[in-house]
Amino acid sequence: MDYLTILYQFNTYWIAIMDNLTMVTNKVSEGFIGQRSVLVPTNNQSKLALNPLSSMLYVTAAGYYPLALNHDRERTYGSEDYILIYCVDGSGWIEIDGVRNIAEANTFYIIPPGQRHHYGSSGKNPWSIYWLHFTGSNAAVIYNSYESFALKNNYVVYNQNRIDEFSYLMDLLESDLNPYFLEVAYVKLIGLLGTFIFAGDAGYTPEPDSIDASVAFMKLHIKSNFLISDFARQANYSVSRYSELFRQRTGYAPMQYFNHLKIHMACQYLSFTSMSVKQICNELGYDDQYYFSRLFKKITTHPPLKYRKANKI
């Protein structure tokens, strides 16, 4: 079965599932399973703004929202900062001053300050995004470069180093910034932004890869049970090589990602249907209800019934 057939079947299947749920959209701005976010404290922002080097460009907040179902954020009067949104999986939309753009995997957008905007995740194929807010005396120069070089072609080839730089920058921002780290933060940020704006991918047409196809296969067969060897065979890799590539691409081990998909679907069943925990268990291919409940609590931090009570629509 080729890649496009897998994606077509997955999209058809996923739409059918989501349409069959009695859904009233529960919009949320944050609080996703596995998320990470860093808000730079005011005292550290002051340090960044006063340092001769970092004052030219610095981060005020950054984060990662995986499989962010129902993610929705609207700012009527815009933000004080520039906002970078980088979609690594799934899809969503970004609306700036009434103009809506579709955000798909490996695309990015920069929202300028002071402009009304609204963005959110697809209900049928929720996005996973990295994001950051940045400002500084040279922030407008960066945005002008974005308008010149990347606005009309905002696709970037997936690069694990870019993801690592996001993580390192968040680690750095969580530290007590001394003068050395202030300047490291500036160098890291300008390097990270450069991987987007000056990626040199103009005219590039993305080629599907086996890990993308594997993720689509998981979503298509979310009710089934598989071993990691099954996924590796489907992707034409050894188990060790497949696991390495999958973790680089998604940040998760393959079976961990597959279980997260199942638990995210279980959350929807608990919130939007009257199915019992046992029925949901069976629906998602779990034979042992107690194992399912332990896994659900491990991933969401709440037992299934407690989650339902707090999130029932």
Descriptive overview:
InterPro entries: AraC-bd, Homeodomain-like_sf, HTH-like, HTH_AraC. Residues 212-310 form the HTH araC/xylS-type domain. Keywords: DNA-binding, Transcription, Transcription regulation. This protein has 313 residues and is of the alpha+beta class. It folds into two domains: 3-25 and 209-311, Homeodomain-like (Arc Repressor Mutant, subunit A); 36-197, Regulatory protein AraC (Jelly Rolls, Sandwich), CATH 2.60.120. 47% of the residues lie in helices and 17% in strands. It contains twelve helices and nine strands. It has helices at 3-20, 42-50, 139-149, 160-173, 179-197, 210-220, 228-234, 239-250, 254-272, 277-283, 289-300, 304-311, and strands at residues 36-39, 58-65, 72-75, 82-89, 91-96, 99-104, 107-111, 117-121, 128-135. A five-stranded antiparallel sheet has the order 1-2-9-4-7. It has a four-stranded antiparallel sheet with strand order 3-8-5-6, with no helix packed on it. A hairpin with a 2-residue loop joins strand 5 and strand 6 (99-104). The radius of gyration is 21 Å and the shape is globular. Residues 3-25 and 201-207 have low confidence and may be disordered.
